[in-house]
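ingest -> validate -> predict -> emit
validate: passed (alphabet ok, no gaps, 100 aa)
predict: started
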Amino acid sequence: MKTLSMEEKLRALGKKIDELSAKAAVRGGEVRAEFAMEKAALDRKMSAARFRLAEMKAAGGQALDDVKAGLSAAYEELESAYRRAAAHFSREVAHADRDF
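emit:
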């Protein structure tokens, strides 16, 4: 089984975030507004992870190990934020559907 590169992981997670965003866009006001705030946080975290990836590509020697650790932490933070946003969105959708 092939291990995904960090670049591939970021691309895949970005796609999941876009899919979740598309689902939120078709929902009503409050759900969409709450997700918009979560999406902004996800976008900031994605930018930070991509910045770390660019740093890693440019780094060499001992600095590379430090940058890899920072990239790994940034990715884990992004992935965790995505899972929280997806869970929150799922609860909001279920709650909104019960109101109908």
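The longest helix spans residues 62-99.
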